[in-house]
Amino acid sequence: MHLVQILLPVRDNDGRPFGPHPFEELYWTLSKKFGGITSFTRAPAEGRWEASGKTQHDDVVVIEVMDANLDRQWWAAFREELEVTFRQTEVIVRAQPIELL
């Protein structure tokens, strides 16, 4: 079993909120495929990174799903779709093995 986390920005690069539609579509897709999701949206996390000698930052939401059969090809293609939808050069999708207790 793997815990897959998706980090998505709350606003586009011009500072405009994305609104609920792209997130609702994402939640529906993941819920149908994996049987449920957890999203941390009430208090967005802040992501910081260095780019071109400057500190950049975004408010991000974290979406999690548990995936019993990690299909890396499916996740890579899905990540690319998210990059287009959210107009990002890179969306972080990460997986870690977990044990259910």
Task: Note the main attributes of this structure.
101 residues; alpha+beta; Alpha-Beta Plaits; 4-stranded antiparallel β-sheet; 4 strands; 29% helix; globular
Mind explaining what this structure looks like?
There is one protein chain. The protein has 101 residues and is of the alpha+beta class. It has one domain: Alpha-Beta Plaits (2-Layer Sandwich), CATH 3.30.70.120. Helices cover 29% and strands 42% of the residues. It contains two helices and four strands; from the N terminus they run βαββαβ. It has helices at 20-34, 72-85, and strands at residues 2-9, 38-51, 54-67, 92-97. It has a four-stranded antiparallel β-sheet, covered by helices on one side. Strand 2 (38-51) and strand 3 (54-67) form a beta hairpin. The longest helix has 15 residues, at 20-34. It is globular, with a radius of gyration of 14 Å. The N and C termini lie close together (12 Å).
